[in-house]
Specification:
By secondary structure, this protein is an alpha/beta fold. It has 8 helices and 14 strands. The model has no long low-confidence stretch (mean pLDDT 90).
């Protein structure tokens, strides 16, 4: 399988040392990763995570306004992205705590660049193993790597909210995703009151993915419950 689309994933780096952030960013870019953002505090990291919706996070444990464990727990309230702890704290109890919270891996500084890249690749392949860069629908394709819909030879860009909504639907393809779940996917940990906005986004998504948006066959409404995304041939 071609895993090159994983290089399009958005990575959030959190460390209080600017030199570490620059070094890790540099070798990630050299390896082909494009979208990388950095933070040096818990507050900065939470702001970026809520606004930018990264696909993967690398967290330090020791931060000036808290610690990585607390940051991880706060992030878990609005996202389930994979997380790797990268820290100078190598005590067994810290490793156990980090992994016990649900982190995907725990690495201790100093580290080898190639080992970190290897571990990142393993986590991304495991977490996004079922994600095809081109998702086949009845009358169109979704290209998550480029955040666009391909229909009748046209490439239609998705907005950030459309992307988040479609990602949530795709990860649960064929199953009902509730209105609350979709609002949370698009608007984070305070999703209440966005039902009308969600309906507007669903309407625009259908205009892009459906041959006949007034008679949808790919994005189905389940009355009173939510929506389902139906993939072609599945």
């Amino acid at each position: 399988m071609d895993y090159s689309y994983l290089k399009q994933k958005k990575i959030l780096l959190v460390d209080d040392e600017k030199e570490i952030l620059e070094m890790v960013t540099d070798f990630l870019r050299k390896d082909g990763f494009i979208e990388i953002k950095t933070a040096q505090t818990v507050a900065q990291a939470l702001g970026i995570a809520k606004e930018w919706n990264p696909d993967f996070a690398i967290l330090d444990v020791m931060l000036p306004d808290g610690d990585g464990f607390s940051l991880f727990e706060q992030m878990r309230r609005f996202t389930d992205i994979p997380v790797l702890f990268l820290t100078a704290r190598g005590e067994d109890e810290d490793k156990v705590k980090g992994l016990g919270l649900g982190a995907d891996d725990y690495m201790v500084k100093p580290f080898f660049d190639k080992e970190l890249l290897l571990r990142i690749g393993i986590i991304l392949r495991r977490y996004y193993k079922d994600e095809d860069p081109l998702v086949q629908l009845s009358g169109s394709q979704i290209d998550f790597a480029r955040a666009e819909v391909i229909k009748n030879g046209q490439h239609l860009p998705m907005t950030a909210k459309e992307y988040d909504i479609l990602q949530a639907l795709y990860r649960n393809a064929g199953r009902i995703v509730t209105i609350d779940q979709l609002c949370e996917a698009a608007w984070g940990d305070n999703p209440y009151g966005y039902e009308n906005s969600l309906m507007a986004h669903i309407r625009r998504i259908r205009e892009k993915i459906e041959e006949n948006p007034s008679k949808p066959v790919s994005l189905i409404t389940v009355k009173g419950l939510g929506y389902k995304l139906m993939l072609e041939g599945k």
